[in-house]
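I would like you to help me understand the sequence and structure tokens below and explain how sequence relates to structure.
___
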Amino acid sequence: MGKKFISVTADFSADGQVKPVRLNWENGRRFEIDRITDIRKAASLKAGGIGLRYTCMIAGKQVYLYKDQDQWFMEVND
């Protein structure tokens, strides 16, 4: 497993909360986040790194999206 840094479109609330709304892949594909079911401080045990872990539902599948400092990443198979 490794890290895949990705571009994310997010909404920012007046109180500073960050809510990702879309994943933007390098090849131009975009995936809308249907729902966020959990947000917690957590480590990526498979790829390394720590930050906020967003548990997201995208097209009926659960995925983990991590925000580490100012970067977003996902765990991917190398």
